[in-house]
Amino acid sequence: MFELALSHGLPAALLLVGLVLWLLIRAVRLGMARSLLFDRAWFASALILVVLHASDLPMYDSRVNIAGWILLAGLRCWSR
To answer: Are 23 and 76 in contact (CB under 8 A)?
Structure first.
């Protein structure tokens, strides 16, 4: 988050972090963490990747970034 805030500004960082947190909280409220095994694995993978991005800077590894966007898109599609 700090790198994002320094590079693009605090509003952009807060908007992106807020969106990711909103998706995770919405998935928990809709019962994704207590759903089928595949859905729980999807939620756990997204949560682990969010923690990885919060504790490390994997910006330059395209595989990790693509996996992150796919997992976030899956959380969004699941909540619809």
So the answer is: yes
**Any idea what DSSP says for residue 61?**
-
Contact 68, 16 (CB under 8 A): no
Output helix, strand, coil percentages for the chain, rounded to the nearest 5: 80, 0, 20
Residue 53 amino acid letter: H
42, 75 Cβ separation under 8 angstroms: yes
Domain positions in the chain? 18-78
Q: What is the pLDDT along the chain (80 residues), one digit of tens a residue?
A: 677 778 888 898 899 889 888 988 888 888 888 888 988 888 888 888 888 877 766 667 788 888 888 888 888 888 77
Q: What's the whole-model pTM score?
A: 0.75
